[in-house]
């Protein structure tokens, strides 16, 4: 019974720690957004933290090509 209670207690503590970390991340993001002078300054700060992923582009080989790959003109 003691081991069961200890396991439950550790699970609750871990869950609360994960929730608290997510909450603090949200608060930090909202605080950064609030303290920025304009949206451009906020967006410039976010761009340095995590850049957007690179999109694979190529010219189509025929009139009907793979729709999952963007054409060179779709950018």
- Overall mean pLDDT: 79
Low-confidence stretches: none
The largest pleated sheet is described as: none
Q: What class would the helix/strand composition place it in?
A: mainly alpha
Morphology call:
flat
Our Rg estimate from Cα atoms comes to 23 Å
Oligomer: single chain
Give an overview of the whole structure.
The protein has 75 residues and is mostly helical. Helix content is 60%, strand content 0%. The protein has helices at 2-35, 39-49. The longest helix has 34 residues, at 2-35. The mean pLDDT is 79.
Short summary:
The chain is built from two helices and no strands. With 75 residues, it is an all-alpha fold.
Features:
0% strand, flat, 75 residues, 60% helix, 2 helices, mainly alpha
Secondary structure: elements and pairs:
Layout: H1 2-35, H2 39-49
